[in-house]
Amino acid sequence: xxxxxxxxxxxxxxxxxxxxxxxxxxxxxxxxxxxxxxxxxxxxxxxxxxxxxxxxxxxxxxxxxxxxxxxxxxxxxxxxxxxxxxxxxxxxxxxxxxxxxxxxxxxxxxxxxxxxxxxxxxxxxxxxxxxxxxxxxxxxxxxxxxxxxxxxxxxxxxxxxxxxxxxxxxxxxxxxxxxxxxxxxxxxxxxxxxxxxxxxxxxxxxxxxxxxxxxxxxxxxx
Length: 222
Hints:
The protein is α/β, with parallel strands linked by helices. The chain is 46% helix and 12% strand. It has two domains: 3-15 and 157-213, no CATH class; 20-152, Rossmann fold (3-Layer(aba) Sandwich). It contains eight helices and seven strands. The protein has a five-stranded parallel β-sheet with strand order 5-2-1-6-7, sandwiched between helices. The chain has a two-stranded antiparallel sheet with strand order 3-4. The relative contact order is 0.18. Pfam families: DUF218.
């Protein structure tokens, strides 16, 4: 397999998925669950820079997050909580949702917890992996429509993000399969009502098809 060609196609998908919303202050930094601990790192950075006074970690899937950081397998939310507290975020500034198992539930479960706890938040900074920024935003437009939000990730280039993932024991093959899976979801989920339809340029879809031909199919939706 020609790795340069794989990277060429993968970078096209990466750049498409990675919306570049400018940062703006919000009531809370809302972090959607992930296997990637660098997502929590970026949320901590935003908190420490003063973009919001609270962090929400949502994710009930049990994962071996942070294998290189001495974090035993636990829910995404709890693993991210540990990362944030170790980095100096006060525990009282963190809100946890340990029930969500997918992107839609990240929003519905978090909404319920905020209502139960009496938080009247209106504005959110949604944080995910770079290649999930667009799908997060498209989902929020349906599932979180009553709120204001932007969708962001750490400002890494494709090469930088692949290198960061390698440091966290996440393979490039997994990243690319996740990206093809996310593009497929952007294509098929609007008809299910899960997210708002996004325009997918021909070049992006062609790169997706090339990557599918090369075998990056591990994250396809049913």
